[in-house]
Amino acid sequence: xxxxxxxxxxxxxxxxxxxxxxxxxxxxxxxxxxxxxxxxxxxxxxxxxxxxxxxxxxxxxxxxxxxxxxxxxxxxxxxxxxxxxxxxxxxxxxxxxxxxxxxxxxxxxxxxxxxxxxxxxxxxxxxxxxxxxxxxxxxxxxxxxxxxxxxxxxxxxxxxxxxxxxxxxxxxxxxxxxxxxxxxxxxxxxxxxxxxxxxxxxxxxxxxxxxxxxxxxxxxxxxxxxxxxxxxxxxxxxxxxxxxxxxxxxxxxxxxxxxxxxxxxxxxxxxxxxxxxxxxxxxxxxxxxxxxxxxxxxxxxxxxxxxxxxxxxxxxxxxxxxxxxxxxxxxxxxxxxxxxxxxxxxxxxxxxxxxxxxxxxxxxxxxxxxxxxxxxxxxxxxxxxxxxxxxxxxxxxxxxxxxxxxxxxxxxxxxxxxxxxxxxxxxxxxxxxxxxxxxxxxxxxxxxxxxxxxxxxxxxxxxxxxxxxxxxxxxxxxxxxxxxxxxxxxxxxxxxxxxxxxxxxxxxxxxxxxxxxxxxxxxxxxxx
Length: 528
Hints:
seven-stranded mixed sheet; single chain; CATH 2.40.50.140; globular; 528 residues
């Protein structure tokens, strides 16, 4: 048995740490050992397999062990225990222990907060390790795609002979040649290589043209170590096989961008919405959850000269106004609220929950749950699970600027088309230079690990709706008139709209709570 394993190791050209060699020999099955080693090599891109490599790629090890039986399984599990490795694998998004919170006879929820720790001085290696973690997370998704898995190889294994291959690569560079062809440089954990996409291959060229720096994609190609000729580009793609529905006739409301304290804050319109929630209206009575997706206050010092535009000059006053609104929301409605760039938290994502220093009143509201930006919330009804991914959406502008189709079609007027690209890439903000973030060496918290039923955002101040692979995209309205900055850049807000989604029928209604007189007085230019 050991001779067969040694033969496999020599063939693959890999080195095993002694503890890993002991683990493999305990499998007592050369075929199983070979599969495990091949998967670890592919997933990690490493020739030296250590305990650390195994720990970072436990998904494959867990599957292998799960297929073993009796004494063999027990023997291998004992080796894992000796290595100090648990076979209990948390889902990618589970950063903290989140037990279901019961809110009724049949209903409960779980919250999966983003890991927001920034407890040390950042170094270049932190960003490198963040990219490595992100690559491995998305690599595992793409390895499940049969069109990529069939001839998958790492870049350093591509020979000088022309061949048909697949790679999983991160986009390092992208440029247009004199002949209008595209050359994209892809890199993985073992090296980098150029890929040519010819202009006359219309479908492939379209896909390549929308690639942005730091995208991670599968590539089918022919060629050699010198250059690849790209035949297809495969995005990770978030998709659901079917739409989840609840038995109970309950609904979710979505709001964002309250901007309390702004001189353009639409106070009367907010009051209209709160009054309606308390009115006894049949539709209002069905609302069981409300998602409040960031920029809850206008902030202080967010941009030069902002103090001249504020009605409430301090964070404390602004959050006091917000608290006054939320205290009047009926107690049967559970609210989830994340921050945005204007809130009293750091701008770098993922953003932590709003703290008690400036907003103590929020902590006294029993039906308000403060969450990170982003956060995944699972609404539970018996065994049914409805997942809502909330993300304020700072990266939307970066997508629109970077992707020609979005830029040319002025996607600020239809922002859900930009959010679609987050789901396509399984990442909320892939472009390193386009936004500020805190790197995480263990796993990138902005990767969309679990596919949501709804992805809701704010930021652009316009309601927009898209359905993408059975996933509902909702971009939020606002409660603020057009600001001077919005007028300067040509952004026309669409305020006071509230999307309401019925979880039984999946019917979506958008209600308008705008006060006409207030909108005429301070609303500025409003979208029609």
